[in-house]
## 1
Amino acid sequence: MAIRNLLTRKTLATSPLGMLGFRSLKTFSLPDLPYDYGALEPAISGEIMQLHHQKHHQTYITNYNKALEQLDDAMSKGDASTVVKLQSAIKFNGGGHVNHSIFWKNLAPIREGGGEPPKGSLGWAIDNNFGSLETLIQKMNAEGAALQGSGWVVSSLWLGVDKELKHLVVESTGNQDPLVTKGPSLIPLLGIDVWEHAYYLQYKNVKPDYLKNIWKVMNWKYASDVYDKECPES
Ligand SMILES: [Fe+2]
């Protein structure tokens, strides 16, 4: 994840010299996409990708950095009330940054292997856990479609692995919560952004078509690499 350093000037009250000191607050910047905006067409339009990346993801980062700077200031002043108040903004905007950074890597142009089914140990694990890749895709698509209009605002569908129990899970999260909020040992392999900003310009209200087509540009190579790293064969 890209990090830039923001120097913040702070008084070192305990400094024997009583000098002003400098401490580094780490903030975040927008990561580049690993492909051109139009490279996922026709599954996802270049217009959507550009807006999603440059506007939506950037806004999460801007607001995350702002909240982190306010947190740093509140902590230096011992302002407990403000520290608590900032937690929701940090979780929402930080989660948005984390989730989108994964989402871009979950996709790949068809000419670069997008949509090619997983091979190796992840392919076997999917067959063992769900019966087949097709069954897994149907399960995730049904979960995404069923949440429409239910009042539960889902932001992401996930395929993850429980690295303690060594099995795959399908989960959904809302409000930009990362998968780890569903369990501390859950590692995301694939996350599908199902907020309207991810598809509405192209698919309007037909979210099932977006969910059907996104698998054509799914980067299973990335998911397999994460799976092999988290669950090495013993
Ligand atoms: Fe998004």
## 2
Amino acid sequence: MTELTVEQRQEVIIEAALDYMTHQDWYWCEDDDDPEVVADLLRLYAVDPNLPPTPCSGSILFDTGVTLALTWEAERRAEYERSLPVWICDCGTRYKLEQWALSNESFYTVTDDGLFDELAGTLKGKRGIGSVPPDPKYAANNGGCITCRKAFKATIDRQADPQTSLLFDLL
Ligand SMILES: [Zn+2]
């Protein structure tokens, strides 16, 4: 195998990353690649040109592209988590909610830089039935606040009701 130049190596890795992202449905383009996405990948690649390969295809270059794609996805994920508003329980505990299907929501505690921390609980369906998170830290929790234990669903309903909200403000 002939040695690739630095530019060729970078090109192959970026191509592999785009392939992998397309395969994962993270990225789609009809003709030319999205210059913004390519610029993001080049920027991330420049940060660490010696990215370790993620075992995937057996080709070191392709698998390095996979690592680059995963890095790109993690960055998008962090951007998304930061963009979500904070929801505050009546007791003052801060959460971020992720709606992952119609009326199915997960509640996460929030890190100092606005990312999801721990999964605190999940609500399912219109009646907001609490379910035990698959993640074990708050496994004893059943759809309620980790601090005051009040059911998330009850607090959300109360906050949505202007009359009881007013009453609550007076208390
Ligand atoms: Zn609470």
## 3
Amino acid sequence: MSKSELPERVDAYKMADQSSQLEGVIAFGRMKRLSELVVEDGADFEAQLQFERDEEKRRLVSGSVSGSVALECQRCLQPVQYDLQSHFRLGIVYNDEMARALPGDLEPLMLLPDQSLDLADMIEEELLLSLPMYAAHEPGDCQIQTEFKPDDQDESPATEKDNPFKVLESLKRS
Ligand SMILES: [Zn+2]
């Protein structure tokens, strides 16, 4: 089952009034800020969105988005793959007063009634918030090399006896 690309912009006010749902993919290339933080272009993200009005007549957008990105490992500088998943609940507001009046479980989404909502921008914002503070491989999975050669990426990792990090480790333990 192939999912269709989410539209660029939607009328979020109208969609909330009509309790509309959207489900689809969002191409990685539509998220420029995220693109600058990754080391390889990622695949599409999948998103589900629900627009509605709550019992207080507030307009809400809730949903989830998931996908994976390759970030640079802060230890070995090689790509490390992260699965990102974000669940969000946003209250649509058009001034600070409305934003302040939102209950604690709702994040404000600032949007004027005559403004259309840029879906990629909203989803990207949520994804940026779900990025790890510190990207790194699991301990032991780093591809730390003592000397860097450009075409030995497929070689097996250094054996124990000539790996200086192992030697250090055993010194620390004794
Ligand atoms: Zn690493």
